[in-house]
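Thread amino acids onto this structure.
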């Protein structure tokens, strides 16, 4: 039978003096960022973006959405404009 010959492998683990671990170098941070930007990987740096979920009367939300659409602004841009005007009076 072909699979019955189980002779021990003669491996000399005591003499590993010629074994050298592979030395790896880390790429520079600027190189890493360039590769990430070209390849489409998400950034590992903290983002200033956040998210806000609001619940309210549908008429008010529709009004806000219509304001954004009419002025061709994103929700966050319109929110910032409205907050700035509120703070200045």
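Threaded sequence (89 positions):
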């Amino acid at each position: 039978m072909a699979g019955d010959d189980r002779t021990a492998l003669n491996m000399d683990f005591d003499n590993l003096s010629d074994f050298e671990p592979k030395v790896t170098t880390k790429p520079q941070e600027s190189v890493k960022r360039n590769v990430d930007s070209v390849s489409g990987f998400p950034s590992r740096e903290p983002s200033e973006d956040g998210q806000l979920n609001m619940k309210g009367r549908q008429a008010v939300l529709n009004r806000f959405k219509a304001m954004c659409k009419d002025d061709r602004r994103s929700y966050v841009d319109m929110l910032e404009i409205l907050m700035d005007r509120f703070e200045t009076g």
